[in-house]
Each structure stands twice: as C-alpha cells, then as structure tokens.
Design goal:
It is a single chain. With 139 residues, this protein is mostly helical. The chain has a domain at 29-121. The protein has 4 helices and 2 strands, in the order H-E-H-E-H-H.
Length: 139
C-alpha cells in the first residue's frame, strides 16, 4: 500500500464530484484508509494533510469544452491532522469499534476541510448543467 510506505496519496474523501460548488458529505472510507495504512505500516500513522481548492470549475467547466485558461485556482493547505487519539482505536478486534474509529477520523477530516472551505473564495455552482445520474456531462 503506497500510503503505508510513506508515499503521497491524494484522496477526494467525498467520493464523487459535487457540482454545487460546496463541500459534500465525506465517505467513511477515508477513515478506513488511515486505519489500514496504520495497520500495514506496523502502527505508524500516515500524515493526513488537508487541502481545499477553489475555482476548479472555472478552469475545467462542465460545458465540455476542455480547459479554460486565464482563471486563478486557489489552494489552501491546512496543518497535518493529529489523529493518534483516534487511530489507537483502529487496532480493536471489535469491528464496531473499528468502524467508529473510521467515522471519527472522517469527521476530523471533514472539520478541517470545512475550516479551509470557509477561508476560500466560493466555487462556482454548476449544478444546473450537471450530468444526470449515469449520463455524460452536457455538451
């Protein structure tokens, strides 16, 4: 596992693209990923560095016309998250305890991303031209 060996892994914990320009609900899989990386690495927690970018919808709009030049994208990077008070629960033999650890880790990631979102310029709302479920983006 790349994460357990200290390599960079970029994760969008929402698990999908949100076209309304706002941070969507996070999937607990990001917490599970942290726990699994810890277990595979012999108990060493991975570094979780939250970051949030704004205005990507202007650079790569849903119009399907490709990249649009001349737009600024702002990236805000937070501090590495302290998770050791939660990751110690990853080692529990009880699956319910492990799942609670995944949920709590995900909640801490969500809080950090929401803080960065509040500090960032708003993203454009493209929900009116978002693809229907299972369909391609409009052209």
């Amino acid at each position: 596992m790349a994460l357990a060996s200290g390599q960079w892994v970029h994760v969008f914990p929402e698990g999908r693209i949100n076209y309304d320009g706002k941070l969507g609900p996070l999937r607990w899989g990001c917490g599970k990923l942290v726990c699994e990386a810890r277990q595979v690495s012999g108990g060493k927690d991975p570094v979780v560095l939250p970051f949030y970018h704004s205005n990507m919808g202007s650079v790569l709009p849903l119009s399907g016309k490709g990249f649009s030049m001349g737009h600024e994208v702002e990236v805000r990077v937070g501090e590495p998250l302290k998770l050791d008070d939660l990751t110690c629960r990853c080692d529990s033999p009880n699956l319910a305890d492990q799942q609670e650890a995944w949920r709590l880790i995900t909640e801490r990631v969500r809080t950090a991303l929401q803080d960065l979102e509040r500090q960032s310029p708003p993203n454009p709302d493209q929900s009116a031209s978002a693809p229907t479920k299972g369909g391609p983006p409009p052209s």
